[in-house]
Please model this.
Amino acid sequence: ATHWHYAGAVDFAIFYLPEQSSGIVERLCSLATRLSRPQLLGDPLVGAAALQLLSELQKGDRADTGFMERLAGVMLEQVYRALSIPVSSSVNTGHTHFSRLQAVFGYIREHLADDLSTEVLADCAQVSRAHFCRLFQEVTGGPPHRYVLAARLEQARTMLTTSNQSIARIAQDCGFSSQSHLTSSFRKLHAITPAQFRVHLKSDNAIAAQILDLSQN
Model:
């Protein structure tokens, strides 16, 4: 059960499921202990169930708890099936190529302020530009430039939240060509500018501080 409710843009979701929810959790835990490293999968049924769970959660009090429980069960069962099927009998090109692109994902995160053109990333993956674009589309479902923009915006949000650096400096450090480029990209995703985002954060923090003072008194 959860009272969590969020109506903004969702970058990623982490689902916490109680161990007593079903026997599948025990089987997944047992499977996890036998695996030597984290497992990655891009199963369409798991993705569809996760998206539907998010959609239902965003309904707040109107969410159908029973429906969400059934969705969670389907998602867990399919995760187990996808991870336990022998590779020789079910090869997913997304799984095969993800390891090749892991170095690229790491490079992007560590070099946001640098040139992250498709040519540079293809060289990092040690494949041709055309082949790299196909691999990236298969694994992530989108082109490289979209992933790079999302990573830069994520870092910009973090810096806006945790630092007092100017928006122009944040734009530079995150690899945007200018402050206006950051502003337009940020507004397109969040419907507010970086400056407005900071104002809202300060207002929220001030309210939180007042509530904390009242609770302590």
